[in-house]
Amino acid sequence: MDQFDLLVVGSGPAGRRGAIQAAKLGKKVLVIEQGKRVGGVSVHTGTIPSKTLRETALNLSGWRERGFYGRAYRVKQEISAEDLRRRLLITLDHEVEVLEHQFARNRVQHIRGKASFVDPQTMQVVKDDGEVVNVKAASILLAVGTKPFRPDYMPFDNKTVLDSDELLDIENLPRSMVVIGAGVIGIEYATIFSALDTQVTLIDPKSTMLDFIDKEIVEDFIYQLRDRNMKLLLGQKAEKVERQNGKVELTLDNGRRITTDMVLFAAGRMGATDTLNLPAAGLEADARGRLSVNPETFATKVPHIFAAGDVVGFPSLASTSMEQGRIAARVAVGAIAKEPPKYFPYGIYAVPEISTCGLSEEEVKERHIPYECGIARFRETSRGHIMGLDTGLLKMIFSLKTRRLLGVHIVGEGATELVHIGQAVLNLKGTVEYFVENTFNYPTLAEAYKIAGLDAWNRMGDIKSEL
Ligand SMILES: Cc1cc2nc3c(=O)[nH]c(=O)nc-3n(C[C@H](O)[C@H](O)[C@H](O)COP(=O)(O)OP(=O)(O)OC[C@H]3O[C@@H](n4cnc5c(N)ncnc54)[C@H](O)[C@@H]3O)c2cc1C
């Protein structure tokens, strides 16, 4: 039986970053991955596929140009599922190749198989051909991620009623689609398919959505969705879902009936801990399959076993999972792990994009911080005119006392890239003066920062007489 310094279960963002970090510190590391290729949900069914699909949909549909050429503008008239898949396969191949190269370069060993605990230090790996090997390690990092929640009452058939993993393999684009679940995944796919001319209905039992995002941004977003005829049925629940003659019929709790070509069930994901035999390690998961950890070290209650990434819950992002994996691995092998900066960006790759970093206006109010907001619309920038943008909003919140940036919130083209300017200022404790005094490239959408900064500054009053 081989002995390792660190055993990592799962090769998604948390696992691979943790494994490479430990290897860079000179440790002997083994990654166990049950999937056909390394990369995890992020590469194979989550982040990268959905973002590739989005990019293809926006390019082929001519979405970005419609502000200029009108809503009827299309780059390709008939977009097929094959068009979407082609780009996906090429992108995934590149991603996997890069990861395999990183593992090889850093001498991270990896084997394919399903891991489960034999005892707190030993894991059993069942390979595809049935061969079983046992491996031992001083520390173990569980980075097993999540899988779609599939309740019994949903008649999944991998064709007309699907989860978000299965959606990537559809043979034809549906003319109509109901998305159940207005969380990030549901919203992203609902808006991507809507950009592809599918008639989309989004249903959620909650009467609000994206509650962790600044309300003004969400209101702008919802307005844009309704403006392009997406149906939002919030505060309504699908009570019955039945397959009928190649279509799906839904009955809602208010008696309303909807017939659609396809249903995407995107209401939640479960931690992939059910096959780990956790009790053998002295661990247990919660009702949603999640593990609890110390938020600073990512250690579980068994000191040499760590967990990172989606399996530990919010924020469940590839970006934050990587950082968690890195910190967990450093602590696991006895290296110092600096706490990451307080504010991380959250990106929602819907159409349009949303991105946010720091406190929302609602949070600032809850904390009784005196504040002022600055707002810029992309159509106020020259770059926005050139691009034909008639939507897009950037909002910044500043403390009236310290003049420091407290939060930045963006909806519109490039939001997930633009947010990093605000993130840097926020984490470096910058004030409204940064935006007023600095020069921004012209013409850019980033100029919206200057406009929003000036908007806030005008109302906050001057502290520098020369301005
Ligand atoms: C549709 C969708 C879109 C998303 N979009 C974004 C986005 O735009 N930006 C963003 O930051 N995040 C996004 N995410 C979230 C992101 O994919 C996850 O946060 C990230 O993949 C979590 O990484 P992880 O390392 O925790 O686990 P995962 O990526 O889930 O990987 C876990 C791996 O562990 C393996 N595994 C599980 N159990 C075992 C076992 N017993 N033995 C061996 N191997 C095992 C699995 O096969 C899997 O490969 C999206 C997710 C989805 C589903």
Please, could you describe this protein's structure?
The chain has 467 residues and is of the alpha/beta class. The protein has 3 domains: 2-148 and 270-332, FAD/NAD(P)-binding domain, CATH 3.50.50.60; 161-267, 3-Layer(bba) Sandwich (FAD/NAD(P)-binding domain); 346-460, 2-Layer Sandwich (Enolase-like, domain 1). The protein has 13 helices and 22 strands. The chain has helices at 13-24, 40-44, 47-61, 66-69, 81-105, 184-195, 215-227, 318-332, 361-366, 382-387, 415-427, 432-437, 447-460; strands at 2-9, 29-33, 109-112, 114-119, 122-126, 132-142, 146-148, 161-162, 176-180, 199-204, 231-234, 238-244, 247-252, 257-260, 262-265, 269-271, 305-307, 346-348, 354-358, 371-377, 393-399, 405-411. α1 runs parallel beside α8 (318-332). The chain is globular and about 65 Å long. The N and C termini lie far apart (70 Å). The relative contact order is 0.12. It binds flavin-adenine dinucleotide. Residues 9-15, 32-35, 40-42, 46-47, 50-51, 114-115, 143-146, 164, 185, 272, 275-276, 309-311, 316-319, 321, 347, 349 line the site of flavin-adenine dinucleotide (FAD).
Give a short overview:
This protein has 13 helices and 22 strands. The chain is of the alpha/beta class.
Number of domains: 3
How much strand content do the residues show?
Answer: 15-25%
Number of helical stretches of at least 4 residues: 13
CATH H level, superfamily name of the largest domain:
FAD/NAD(P)-binding domain
Shape: globular
Radius of gyration: 24 Å
